Structures are given as C-alpha cells and as structure tokens.
C-alpha cells in the first residue's frame, strides 16, 4: 500500500512538473507577447469598415446595453453587461462594478473598443471601463504559479521516491515529519510574493527566484528548529 501511494505521489508530481514547464514555456510568454502586441496596436484607419471579425487594430463600435448584473459577494461576485450591436452581441465580463458598469442601464448607448474580435473596453459619456478581455500587464502572478507548481513537484518527487525505495524507513520524509511545512510554505510564498509583485509592478523575472529563496530559507529554519527541538538535554528525564 505504501508503494502504491508513493507511485501515486510521483505521478501527481510529474503532472505538476509538466504544468510548471507549460507555464514558463507557453502561458507566460504568450501572455507577455499578447500584452506587448496590444500596447503597440494603433486605431483602425478612419473611414474603413471591418472586413473580418478579427482585426489587429483598435476599432470603436456602437452598442446598446441590454442588461447588466452587478452582484458583489466574494466568490459569487458577478459583474456583466449584455450588449447588442451590428456585429457584436453577447455578455461582457468585468472585474469590478466601476467606474462605468454600475451606472449603466438597459437602453443606454455605449461605445465598445474591439481588438482581435474581443470587446476590450466599454465607454459612455467619456467614462471608460476595461473588460476581462483586455490584456493585462500582470505576468508576475503567472510566474509565481509556475514556481509554486515546480516546488510542489520537487517535494512530491523527493517524498514519493524515498517512500517507494524505502517504504519502511521514510524517516522525516512523511507529511507529519517534514512534509507539511514545505508544502504550506510553498503555497503561502506563491501568493505572498506573487500578489505584491503585481501590485508593485516588479519585474516578473525576479518572482520565481524570490519564491524559491523564501521556501529554501523557511526549510532551513524548519529543519534547524526541528533538530533543536529533538535534541536531548543531558540529565533531563
């Protein structure tokens, strides 16, 4: 049974490792490239009409608001607007209710900014709000997610391999032994470093090394503390 659990742990760890590789080789580069493309995009030439739904330029289209939903409630929050136009009809997702969404009502006329087939912003009377489709300059959290997955993969592979090769002599390589601390630290470090990096606009290249350093430092402290607590005091009973 121990070896079966070890094999399962190794399999999960390999999946996490594959996820980490995909983050750094696919998701992160694509996200950065998409934002750079969007930032460099110019408006579509005036007087031209779209000849396809996908255009690599910014075009403004007239839209009518059909309905809005502004619902705040943590995980169940919903901020959407249903719009209708000659070429676009459907629901737009927003990350928050303001500054525009909360003021919209059915029948309002608004202007949608379209890029590559998506409405990336909605404007009315000079008030503009980004939709969830607008590219964001937030690669830091993606890098943090990749680092977190990689650390969890390494921990799982180490613990799984030890339990597979020496099922009766795992020593500290158990969840109760030394597994819980590094796993919790990895998760906390992923968000504790990634989110502030986004808020402060720090370079994403520093995120993964900082997370690894934090986890390694915490691991040294945990091992040192464990060793100190487990040492015997001469004469103690």
Q: What does this protein structure show overall?
A:
The structure is a single chain. The chain is an alpha+beta fold and 237 residues long. Helix content is 49%, strand content 18%. It contains four helices and six strands. It has helices spanning 2-40, 139-165, 175-200, 207-230, and strands at 59-71, 78-84, 89-93, 109-115, 118-124, 127-130. Strands 3-2-1-4-5-6 form a six-stranded antiparallel beta sheet, with no helix packed on it. The longest helix has 39 residues, at 2-40. The chain is elongated, with a radius of gyration of 25 Å. The model is unreliable at 227-237 (pLDDT under 50).
Strands of the largest sheet, in order across it?
3-2-1-4-5-6
Shape annotation:
elongated
Oligomer: single chain
Helicity range of the residues?
A: 40-55%
- Write the H/E string, N to C: HEEEEEEHHH
What distance lies between the first and last C-alpha atoms, to the nearest angstrom? 38 Å
Number of helices: 4
Q: Please indicate the percent range of residues in DSSP E strands (runs of 2 or more).
A: 15-25%
How many β-strand stretches? Answer: 6
Which spans of ≥5 residues are poorly predicted at pLDDT below 50?
Answer: 227-237
Q: Mean of residue pLDDT?
A: 86
Q: How would you sum up the major sheet? A: 6 strands, antiparallel
Structural class: alpha+beta
């Amino acid at each position: 049974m121990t070896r079966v659990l070890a094999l399962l742990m190794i399999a999960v760890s390999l999946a996490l490792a594959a996820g980490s590789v995909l983050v750094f080789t696919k998701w992160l580069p694509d996200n950065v490239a998409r934002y750079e493309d969007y930032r460099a995009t110019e408006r579509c030439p005036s007087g031209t009409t779209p000849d396809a739904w996908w255009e690599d330029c910014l075009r403004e289209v007239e839209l009518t608001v059909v309905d809005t939903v502004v619902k705040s409630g943590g995980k169940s929050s919903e901020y959407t607007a249903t719009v209708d136009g000659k070429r676009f009809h459907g629901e737009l997702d927003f990350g928050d209710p303001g500054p525009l969404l909360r003021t919209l009502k059915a029948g309002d006329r608004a202007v949608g900014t379209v890029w590559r087939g998506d409405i990336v912003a909605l404007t009315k009377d000079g008030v503009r709000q980004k939709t969830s489709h607008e590219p964001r300059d937030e690669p830091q959290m993606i890098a943090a997610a990749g680092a977190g997955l990689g650390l969890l993969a390494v921990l799982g592979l180490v613990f799984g391999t030890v339990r597979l090769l020496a099922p009766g002599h795992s020593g500290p390589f158990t969840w109760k032994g030394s597994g819980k601390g590094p796993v919790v630290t990895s998760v906390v470090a992923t968000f504790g470093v990634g989110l502030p990096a986004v808020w402060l606009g720090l370079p994403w290249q520093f995120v993964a090394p900082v997370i690894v350093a934090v986890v390694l430092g915490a691991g040294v402290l945990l091992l040192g503390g464990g060793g100190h607590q487990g040492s015997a005091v001469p004469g103690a009973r």
